[in-house]
């Protein structure tokens, strides 16, 4: 091995630019199937006749899948190379999008279930793969990966209403996102075919499972911070357009404001981990970003209409940074790819199980109170709880297992 050659890059037998391109293509597919639901939620309710509670369940289902299916990912990665597991997850994602476009309520929920499971498995495997492939720059690459999620989500939420108006169907407005998933499948199939003639095609090998994380306080702090900040994010994804419409904002503008907020996340998705690693730990950066998240959300809920765009931007900057740092903490708190892979599974299982309650809980609070004040209070309390968890998770420590 030549000095200075990254071990992870050698392990997968691919140049860094190709790994980054693959990461971008996969990441860009992990949010559109989810981000199109919120702008179209009222239309879906009107056409299908589902209740507010059912609409909340539809928004919650993918997030619940993120937690429920996460423990399965490491097991699959021990049976197959993780890159192949990710490939089949994208195939499942394509199938879920297609199923959801069929008429009826059952295909809507079944397709959403498949989409959530596919995204869950993929997101669980990626931090370990990033730590393995880019051991010297995992935090920065995590910021890049997080930004690709934001790009996909911002684009999908921005065009959801225009696509629905253009095609005359909310199902078609969601079905178009099968195209980028199909592109990834085709590209992966071509790449596999091109290297099939090689005697020994190198593949990433994810290390064995790290035991003892459930008894580690730092691992729990990372998982709780990740889950609580995700609860804030999915509450916004699910209900921000509806909340704005209830304030008298036009549906198209409400969808645009959500897209603007998600677009603003790109700035702190890329810069958040980099800035956080410039100081001795990540706590102060997280506190500032959580404060921006609270300020932006309350601005959307109570601020003047003329300032809604500013509130949406502040909200996006806060949430983009808290999310990207949450992903970065998995690799920063892990001494190696072994721990990173296992911590990713634990964080996603515990964290997203917590986050899954947010969209449904917000919907039930809104239905019970017939306004958004209780939701606003719950949002602030959840942000405070996230800051408490960050007080431990953001320390400059690494998980030490026996």
Could you characterize the architecture of this molecule?
The protein is globular, with a radius of gyration of 20 Å. The protein has a single domain, classed as Up-down Bundle (Growth Hormone, Chain: A). The chain has 402 residues and is mainly alpha-helical. The chain has helices at residues 7-12, 16-27, 32-35, 37-48, 52-69, 72-79, 82-100, 105-133, 138-167, 170-175, 178-195, 217-246, 251-276, 283-302, 308-332, 337-369, 373-393. α2 (16-27) runs parallel beside α9 (138-167) and α5 runs antiparallel to α16. This is MFS transporter, CP family, cyanate transporter. It holds the Pfam family MFS_1. The chain crosses the membrane at residues 12-30, 50-73, 85-102, 108-130, 142-163, 175-193, 213-240, 252-272, 284-304, 310-332, 339-360, 372-393.
